[in-house]
């Protein structure tokens, strides 16, 4: 997929544990608490300490607007979290974060990028258009606020040309 030029106001930068405040601002604004998908600051700091983990933060006019957190193990990687604050959605920020994540992953020699997403999440549209395909399903993995259950879908995308 071709990468559109980034809006002037948008800057992507590698983040670290020092950016935990920015990450948590985006986390709290982005993830619907009903599904319990958001991570705590402690969980984020714990994973940022591990080898093979990288964080990309999207800054809009200097304020945190989104982030993507990825973990690589051997030559496979998982996109653990991606979120964009509601006021900046549909401006291509998640697409830019995903592009940057895939570029970094390829540079590190990652063969496949994996992720898990709740069935019905609009993010599935983003993943579909980026060539992810479904490889698994965990039935009734998420519970909504009203007790309704949602499957978790496992998606994957080959990043190196030789792998399917
Ligand atoms: C999913 C999410 C990250 C998308 O962020 P975003 O910056 O608005 O996405 P983009 O603007 O880069 O969208 C790129 C494409 O993805 C698809 N897309 C994104 N949001 C969509 C929506 N609400 N409905 C349908 N398609 C959507 C579209 O194809 C879109 O292209 P278009 O705007 O030209 O139609 C954001 O809605 C979010 O933070 N959601 C809550 C957190 C979450 O659920 N994260 C995913 C966990 S797996």
TrEMBL record:
The keyword Acyltransferase applies. InterPro entries: Acyl_CoA_acyltransferase (IPR016181), GNAT_dom (IPR000182), YpeA/RimI_acetyltransf (IPR050680). Keywords: Acyltransferase, Transferase. Pfam families: Acetyltransf_1. Residues 10-160 form the N-acetyltransferase domain. It comes from the Bacteria. The keyword Acyltransferase applies. GO terms for molecular function: acyltransferase activity, transferring groups other than amino-acyl groups. This is Ribosomal-protein-alanine N-acetyltransferase.
């Amino acid at each position: 997929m071709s990468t559109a030029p980034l809006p002037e106001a948008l800057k992507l930068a590698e983040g670290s544990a020092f950016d935990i405040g920015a990450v948590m601002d985006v986390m709290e604004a982005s993830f619907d608490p009903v599904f319990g998908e958001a991570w705590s600051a402690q969980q984020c700091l714990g994973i940022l300490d591990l080898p093979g983990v990288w964080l990309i933060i999207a800054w809009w006019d200097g304020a945190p607007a989104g982030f993507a957190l990825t973990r690589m193990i051997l030559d496979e990687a998982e996109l653990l979290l991606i979120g964009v604050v509601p006021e900046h959605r549909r401006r291509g920020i998640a697409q830019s974060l995903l592009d940057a994540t895939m570029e970094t992953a390829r540079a590190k020699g990652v063969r496949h990028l994996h992720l898990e997403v709740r069935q019905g999440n609009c993010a599935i549209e983003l993943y579909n258009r980026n060539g992810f395909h479904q490889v698994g399903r965990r039935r009734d993995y998420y519970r909504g606020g009203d007790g309704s259950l949602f499957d978790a879908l496992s998606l994957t995308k080959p990043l190196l040309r030789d792998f399917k």
